[in-house]
């Protein structure tokens, strides 16, 4: 049985990931790119979460393309109003998300 190095609990009962999600200070902004295209940037993630998994779930939930660069999720298109409910469903604290 493996033990989590952060909390000391067995891996099956580890809650470090859920605790890390509630302590994130997430910022959602839009940025105008080349040729007038709009990109939505989601930043403020710490090391306690899997940012690539979050990006994959956001892209499939919003039906758009995107990437992860420098701990910032870049999504194609303007999705400011749609990201918060998806992140809350994933376990993030809604009061910690700023638009």
How is this structure best summarized?
By secondary structure, the protein is an alpha+beta fold. The protein has helices at 16-22, 51-62, 80-89; strands spanning 26-32, 38-43, 66-69, 72-76, 97-98.
Describe the protein.
The protein is α+β, with helices and mostly antiparallel strands and 99 residues long. The protein has a single domain (24-98), classed as 2-Layer Sandwich (Translation Initiation Factor Eif1), CATH 3.30.780.10. Helices cover 29% and strands 24% of the residues. The chain is built from 3 helices and 5 strands. A 5-stranded mixed beta sheet has the order 3-4-2-1-5, with helices on one face. A hairpin with a 2-residue loop joins strand 3 (66-69) and strand 4.
Please describe the topology of this protein.
Blueprint lengths: L15 H7 L3 E7 L5 E6 L7 H12 L3 E4 L2 E5 L3 H10 L7 E2 L1
Parallel strand pairs: 1-5
Antiparallel strand pairs: 1-2, 2-4, 3-4
In the CATH hierarchy, what is the superfamily? SUI1-like domain
SS element count, helices: 3
| CATH hierarchy class name | Alpha Beta
- Give the overall pLDDT as a whole number: 86
Look up the CATH topology. Answer: Translation Initiation Factor Eif1
The spatial strand order of the largest sheet comes to: 3-4-2-1-5
Proper CATH architecture: 2-Layer Sandwich
Biggest sheet layout = 5 strands, mixed
Number of strands: 5
Principal-axes geometry comes out as elongated
Strand proportion = 15-25%
Summed up, the domain count is: 1
Share of helix among residues?
25-40%
Give Rg in angstroms: 15 Å
Please provide the ordered H/E string of secondary-structure elements.
HEEHEEHE
Poorly predicted runs are none
Structural class: alpha+beta
Q: How far apart lie the N and C ends? A: 42 Å
């Amino acid at each position: 049985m493996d033990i989590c190095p952060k909390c000391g609990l067995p891996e099956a009962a580890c809650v470090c990931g859920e605790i890390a999600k509630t302590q994130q200070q997430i910022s959602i902004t839009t940025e105008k790119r080349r040729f007038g295209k709009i990109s939505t940037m989601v930043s403020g993630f710490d090391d306690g979460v899997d940012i690539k998994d979050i990006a994959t779930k956001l892209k499939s939930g919003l039906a758009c393309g995107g990437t992860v660069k420098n701990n910032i999720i870049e999504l194609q298109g303007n999705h400011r109003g749609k990201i918060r409910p998806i992140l809350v469903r994933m376990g993030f604290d809604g009061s910690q998300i700023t638009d």
